[in-house]
Design a protein that fits this description.
Blueprint: H1 3-19, H2 23-31, E1 36-40, E2 47-49, E3 56-58, H3 67-70, E4 87-99, E5 104-111, E6 124-128, E7 136-140, H4 141-147, E8 154-157, E9 164-171, E10 180-183, H5 189-198, E11 207-213, H6 221-228, E12 232-236, H7 237-241, H8 251-254, H9 266-298, H10 300-308, H11 313-345, H12 347-354, H13 365-392, H14 395-400, H15 411-430, H16 437-462, H17 471-482, H18 484-518, E13 527-532, H19 541-551, E14 554-564, E15 581-585, H20 593-596, H21 606-613, E16 629-631, H22 635-639, H23 645-652, E17 656-658, E18 668-674, H24 677-685, E19 693-701, E20 713-715, H25 717-722, E21 726-736, H26 742-755, E22 759-763, H27 771-800, H28 802-810, H29 815-865, H30 884-905
Parallel strand pairs: 5-10, 7-9, 16-20, 17-19
Antiparallel strand pairs: 1-11, 1-12, 2-3, 4-5, 4-8, 4-11, 6-9, 7-10, 8-9, 13-21, 13-22, 14-21, 15-18, 17-20, 18-19
Helix pairs in contact: 1-11, 1-13, 9-13, 9-16, 9-18, 9-27, 11-13, 15-16, 15-29, 16-17, 16-18, 16-29, 17-29, 18-27, 18-29, 19-26, 27-28, 27-29, 27-30, 29-30
Length: about 900
Amino acid sequence: MLALPIVGVSAADFTLRSAELSPEQTLSRTVGTADARVRATMSGSPINQNPDGTTSAPVGGYKNFDPSQAREVPPVPVQSLFPAGAEFLKDSSGFGKVRTTHGLLDTQLRELDTHSPLVTGLITLNRGRLPEGPGEVIATQAFLDNSGLFVGSSVTPRGATSAYRIVGAHEVPSALGRNELIAPPGTLLAPLAKALQAAGAHGVGADDEYLVKVGGAGVTWDAVKAANANGMVVVSRAVVLDPPADSEVPLYKDEPKERFDRDGGSVVEMAILATVVGLAMLEICLLAGPAFAVGARRSRRQLGLVGANGGDRRHIRSIVLSGGLVIGAVAAVTGTVVGILLTVVLRPVLEEKLGERFGDFDLRPLELAAIAALAVLTGLLAAIVPAVTASRQTVLASLTGRRGIRRANRVLPVVGLIAVAVGAAIALYGTTSQMGSPVVAGGSAIAELGIVALTPVLVGLFGRLGRWLPLSPRLALRDAVRNRGRTAPAVAAVLAAVAGTVAVATYQHSNDVQMRQEYRADLPHGTGLLEANENSTHREVPALREALAKHLPLTQRADVDRLVVGNPSCESFSTEPGCGRAEIITPQEQRCPLYEHPDGMNAFPEAQRKELRADWRCQDKPYGTQHPVLVADEKVLGILAVTDPGSVAALKGGQAVAFDKRQVKDGKLVVRSITDPEAADLKRDKHEELPGEDKVFQVHLAPETTKSWGVELIVPPAAAKAAGLATAPLGSYFSLDGQATSQQRQKMAGEIDRMGVEASMRIEAGYQGDNSIVMLALAVFAGLVTVGAAGIATGLAQADAEADLKTLAAVGAAPRVRRTLSGFQCGVVSLMGVVLGSAAGILPAVGLRLMEQREAQAFYRETVEQGYTSASEALPTVVISVPWETLGGLIVLVPLGAALLAALVTRSSGALARRAAA
């Protein structure tokens, strides 16, 4: 019992310390044996970075950054930033889909000279060999596992004109789960991009980074800042190992260093961790205390002999406490050794779970000693009460087996009552305090300790129920009440375990209920949308529609297209040559002023922002979709549950239907055909009118109460053709006859895989919570702890009541009485602990939920005052809901299971023996 927590904590400490990489190990996985890794930022404008290169920002901060100017800055060759004679190694990577035995797999495609000594440490070759020339690649083990391929297989990226042979398996030590293919420079990305462009598909966007070797002192901080001035981020070995002072880092002059720190919540985490550790120690003490009491009770004759031979109470206490120290020390050594061995043996599994290779095994003797000392301290604390109890027994009582009579402590219940009141007050104060969760957790812990102190009194109150019970349960209950010294710790242990379980379960259930209430459907219930995720697959959409009708029980299907400007294979917001897009243009006077000012919302005073936020032009729509403009007939309205007769008649008559009144003026709506999206983006950044050709549609405006599910405009095919706008297949909206079964969904997914098309199908089925597994796990955990604690209490009760059980057997009691009594003793302890724990666990959950409500309401008021949120929106509240099913299972099933288990493992008869002399 004492060793198990030590096994877990020592294994966790050893694992986490071994997983922490030293700066040298981190650099080896980032820059290999080079002096630096250099990459260009997207903007190309001057930046400032922190010393390790993990964070960067434009000079002056983002508040003064003008992206429209940044795009006009031409890139600077990396080679020009370093002295002559420097060695450069290009590391290019992009993402694409690769055909596998299962379908298509998102994979990182990389070009790197793996034979260069600079890459040592970046990758590890597990088997096979490195690629030598065109047509050869190496793959990560994760890719091989996910793709069903192996070393020696041929693999083809989608769109490639030729296959590549996998000649080796490698891993990336810092990203074991990465799907990656590496080919020699110039043999993968460029040919693939050329083939995709020839097919009219979107090309592969490659990101280029460079490993740089300059020799000497390496890349200094001054060289890093010079590269920053040209828009380059540098990870320098010399700078990481010997970072400059904060005063020499320009980034920290633009923004405080604390903004870039990643451990801002460490104080809160440590407070919560300390609370959890404290409660864990309490739980162990409560569970181990009765176990020590059992040992002391079984050894009372030996302890009586010590007293008979001149030993006083100090000696008795020392003997029992020494037993606790010895057991704690054995548990500490055993637990620590087993924890270390587990980490060593399970290292591959742990590395796979964490997703990265360990550095070197890192044993921290002081930390492990502190963890071991925790076991010794816990053993000592758990033995205190049994030691005091044993020392108070007279020599005669110890030798004859009499238990004696001891008056109940009257001070402890008062202290417990005060602790409950103070803890509850602190927890409720935490809901209004800035400290938040640590205060709530601390107050809840104090209140729980108070209930633990009240347990003997509460156990006595339970005893009044015995008059209405049959013989066996009445004996069990009265025995538990008469022997509160052994019953109370076991009940308290069950209480502590159940309280934690109920707290987490109540919080999880409340959160789940609130998410269910706040859930916003994407489509009407029972309808779905099948669409191509990549515009380049528009030619396969008709086949997708046929597969949909074949594999799902459709009642209606509405095929929808999208508007096309330029190459139909271009992605929606691509700026590549030949690409374009069609956008709805809102009339100038109907645009929200908050979004039109060059300086944004901050250009308006708070009062004006607040006023404008309530303006109808600034009301945000609750829904959004990737394709707000559809080309379709009236069938789509039926699937989207748009029942407005005017909208149905208009679309059926060849007139477009609009759903946002801000976009409509005098019954007309403008769609602008943009053929130069890059120029349009520059204009948008400057809040200027977008260049393009306008197409004006006469539209029917649907009523404001109509829910359009993110669709802003539906254009009939004839109207789009008359306006001179091209279209391309997008997908289909559909409604189902009942629900799609798992088998039907799998068949459809398999068909999509077989076709090699990147498409998605979603069916609106309402909120789907995943809380049941969490609740089940919590209930099982509480049940195990409850059975363990109750079992200990039952064992102690049997040790105490052995003489009574023999007397029952001697006077002719049926053999089953012993088994039944044992079962009810275990069940009584379990029931009392579960009931009290259920009541105690509600407090922290309520406190945490009220704290979340306070934070949400404070944020809401701040955004309303600053004009970022409309005052018409409802004040946020949180739901507090008790998981009655979980509580019912704990209160009924757990005690019942504990009672049955105790009855099954108890012998129905015992050997008769002479009673101890009176």
